[in-house]
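Obj.: predict assembly geometry.
Materials: sequence records (below).
Method: joint structure prediction, all chains together.
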Amino acid sequence: MNVPEDLRYTPDHEWVRADGEEGVVGITAYAADQLGDVVFVELPATGTRLSAGASFGAIESVKTASDLFAPLAGEVLAVNDALSTQPELVNSDPYGDGWMLRVRIDDPGSIDRLEDAAAYRTRIEAA
Amino acid sequence: MSVESPAVATATVLQRTPLHDRHVALGARMVGFGGWEMPLQYSGIIPEHHAVRARAGLFDLSHMGELWVSGPGASTGLAYALVTDPGRLAPGRAHYSMICGSDGGIIDDLIVYRVAEERFLVVPNASNAPVVADELRLRLDGFEAALDDASLRTALVAVQGPLARTILEPLTDVELAGLRYYAIAEGHAAGVPALVARTGYTGEDGFELFLDGANAAAAWDRLSEAGADRGLVPAGLGARDTLRLEAGMALYGNELDRDTTPFEAGLERLVGSEKAGDFVGRGALERARTTGPRKRLVGLEMRGRGIARHGYPVHRGGEAGPCGVITSGTLSPTLGRAVAMAYVPTDAASPGTMLEVGIRGSRVDAEVVPLPFYRRPA
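Observations (raw structure tokens):
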């Protein structure tokens, strides 16, 4: 399963690609595979405040609905509008075109408290 | 997001069907369902769903129960045990039925096949098979009828879809053209002895093959090979659920349960008021018929963005509390729209009624529509 080295991960299978004060958020290839064909993604409006660990939206496959959890505290700068018409991008390109949010991170140091690729890979291999 | 840990990892007592190795070899995602380890999907729910609508799907349904009721009193015994009258079936025919409690609540929905004059095959849901077997044993006491629970030694394989007959025809000595919907015949299929029934749970034409478990893998392989060039693909429980939902068919545990009567589920046609003799639940069901249902099963199409799911509340505009509940919901792969079934008050059950579904704290518009959502082209 693809777990890019340059990202950080949450226990709930979200990833963050941090660049200074900004970060991009999505879900991992493992999570997308577990969900199956994604048919609906509900994302917050630009400007929404995110609290770390709190639900920021939902993702649904044919079979099931799951909450999406914010990896970090911050503010939503942009959302991936393409997912409203092409939710399947989460399956086909979870680390690229299937991104969900661009956020301003309140505390850029908080990124270090998330798992690195090795730790996340170990966890999904044990699941 | 949250990823559910696979049920197979936690449950240690799940039964495996004789086709388990085939599913694993095909790369199926296995889940626990009704006490069995079953394939949820192979290539994906959506492609499998489309394959069944357009061509054909091959299903392992060996988790379903198979209860044989035989003897001179089998017909009258089943008429007492169930809400329908299987004695009205000609040999070789079948009907949809229910077993209800004395309070009229639904213990399970079933298909009853009259395989021979004094030989009936009752097919309950996997999760209810032990309860139905126990109830039938009690209810048949005093009738000249024997109950044989063949669930664990019987495999059930279904071929469903518009090409099902084309695929199965060269593989069976049963004359499929003469086999009517809800009929069953004994013969051979896919190289092994089989009971071939023209029944299903997908809204498509199709066949269900009851086989000795020991022969199931050979039959599965034969069907897979013979159907491959027609586009036959293995299909899992995920596609089975979206297919039956589009077809407006009830699922026990979702639309049907002990707190629901057949009248509320829109299945009043099953309840045999014309039956001469008594049957379990008759008094309660006749009272329920007179009183009229408190709730009605309806179809909903979402008009706002969102997918209604099992257990979500249904509201009437302007009212604070919910008036009903979603029983099943999904994004319909065939229609490309979110659809659901729900119990709502009888005065909110007319097609065209606008309701709201509570989805993660928001209310999303939904319209009552006639069931089924999908009807196969004639």
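Conclusions so far: DSSP finds nine helices and 20 strands in chain B.
To do: check interface contacts against the pulldown list.
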